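Chain A, query sequence.
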Amino acid sequence: MKYTNLGGGDYLVKIDQDKVETTIETIARKSYQTAKSKRGFVSKDTLFIEDHVVYSSDHTQVMGLNMGLINQRQCYTKLQKMIGSNDYIFRGKHFEKSGRNPEQFLEDVVKEIEKNK
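Chain A, predicted structure.
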């Protein structure tokens, strides 16, 4: 996975086509693990990643990731596939809602993916 800051809080994310699902799972898991609690405590509930992955209408292609408030954790992670491209846009403004640094988050995701190769 590679990313580029586009400005305005958006990041272009390039994901190898054979690694789309595992990369999106890594982003979702990392977002959930690092999310701040809305009420001062962190829920121990399980994250069901498949509930937040967005698929094409025929369910053959991953189109993105849409995470909001999950188990009282402020995930606010939005990744959208670009039309006519295999690239994705990471919406950093949504992510910043929860007080997190989107660039640091993406860097941590890249490191985790590299570590798990």
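The chain has one domain: 2-115. Residues 2-115 form one domain.
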